Amino acid sequence: MRYKIAVISGDGIGPEVMAEALRVLDRVGEQFGHEFDYTTALAGGAAIDACGNSLPQETIDLCKRSDAVLLGAIGGWKWDNLPGEQRPERALLGLRKELALFANLRPAILFEELADACPLRPELTAGGLDVLIVRELTGGIYFGERGYKDTPLGRAAYDVEQYAEEEVRRIAHVAFSMAGKRSGRVTSVDKANVLESSRLWREIVTEVAAGYPEVALNHMYVDNTAMQLVCAPQQFDVILTGNMFGDILSDEASMITGSIGVLPSASLSTGNFGLYEPVHGSAPDIAGQNKANPMAMILSAAMMLRYTFGLAKEADAVETAVKRVLQKGCRTPDLCRGESTERKIGTAEAGQLIAGEI
Ligand code: IPM
Ligand code: MG
Fold first, then answer.
1. Ligand 1 pocket: which residues have CB below 6 Å?
2. 3-state helix, strand, coil in the chain (%, to 5)
3. What is the pLDDT of residue 340?
4. Residue nearest to atom 5 of ligand 1 (CA)
5. Distance of CA 224 to the CA centre of its chain
6. What is the value of pTM for the model shown?
7. What pLDDT does residue 188 have?
8. Phi-psi bin for 52: left (phi > 0), alpha (psi -120 to 50), beta?
9. 191 classed as catalytic
10. What confidence score (pLDDT) does residue 345 get?
11. Could you identify the atom of ligand 1 that is nearest to the CA of residue 93?
């Protein structure tokens, strides 16, 4: 089979980790007889520098013509002082909206091999950790009305948190159907003790749950969830939440798996179309130094194989290859703990070793 992939390497460590993901995909292509056609496009800071616009129309069009999108990372110090609407991050939000990528899947899995990289006491994660965060990605406060107004206390800025029933319903369906294929538990996270939008969220999620009798639902306030994630993380299977709470909780969940450098994500629309990107950012402090961990990008490519292309065997092969490399003690700097069993490797070597295991 032949697959058309739009490749947006982006900024900072994006291009380095992307190169390794493409190396691994090429290997999958050779071994399993597929052809991956890559077309590169600009977004974020790289696009601002090239054409003054963080999300050129050409990039949107290319993504729409492709079967899937791979994205490295966006943003960096260089563009930090631009006004809000011109910041590179707008490109990410624009892509999510234009491509209707409403469902963001962020699996936080603690690999056995990285158990000692987890900052929690070992008994809290004994036997492993496998949480899937399902984050709503095209609504809520990220996309609500925003602006400034004058008040007696001076200028006020506001961003509106708003969720429509249908937005909640469609993301809830994603979470429940995912939970049905896992441990069958959904924790819906909100702030219903304070926010009206959360009360509607809770009502709709409860309605949707009725259609999934095999899945157990509980509701949890976001502040409590933040606490539970670090004191009893194994209670979670699927965490269903809105855009901003999902942003925050997914960073927290990523750290308890050892390193944000190993966490992939998928952003899906209806049908099988998706954009795949690591959860980590552009890490400008280590860009261009062969220090970045390409595993999150490589595992994002594996998610693309699984969810958009339906290539489960191939996705398994990539995930197993990553684990084998970790089993051998190979560690990029983010994973190094200074133990004698570690073999320190760089970005390119990590990609080569992983490809070599496929
Ligand atoms: C993420 C990032 C983005 C977000 C930023 C870069 C706009 O933090 O994907 O988690 O807040 O969604
Ligand atoms: Mg984030």
1. 89, 92, 247
2. 45, 20, 30
3. 85
4. 89
5. 22
6. 0.94
7. 98
8. left
9. yes
10. 96
11. 7
Strand, helix or coil for residue 164: coil
Question: Cα–Cα distance between 201 and 195 in angstroms, integer?
Answer: 10
DSSP string for 191-236: -TTT-HHHHHHHHHHHHHHTT-TTSEEEEEEHHHHHHHHHH-GGG-
pLDDT tier at 102 (50, 70, 90 boundaries)? very high
pLDDT tens for residues 17-37? 999 999 999 999 999 999 999
Return phi, psi of residue 87, to 5°: -70, 150
Residue 271's contacts (CB-CB under 8 Å, 6 or more residues apart) are none
Instruction: Label residue 40 by pLDDT band (50, 70, 90).
Output: very high
Kindly state the helix (H) or strand (E) to which residue 268 belongs, with its residue range.
strand 264-268
CA pair distance 225, 187, nearest whole angstrom: 9
**What are the tens digits of pLDDT across the range 305-354?**
999 999 999 999 999 999 999 999 999 999 888 888 899 999 999 999 99
Backbone angles phi, psi at 244, to 5 degrees: -75, -40
340 with 351: CB under 8 angstroms?
A: no
Report the C-alpha gap between 114 and 241 in whole angstroms.
27
Identity (one letter) of the amino acid at 352?
Q
Which H or E run contains 55? none
Tokens 């984050």 belong to which residue?
Answer: 135
Nearest CA to ligand 1 atom 8: 247
Which ligand has an atom closest to residue 75 CA?
A: 1
Burial class (CB in 10 A: 0-12, 13-18, 19+), 333: middle
276 vs 289: CA distance, rounded Å: 24
Measure the CA angle with vertex 321, ends 317 and 324; round to 5°: 135
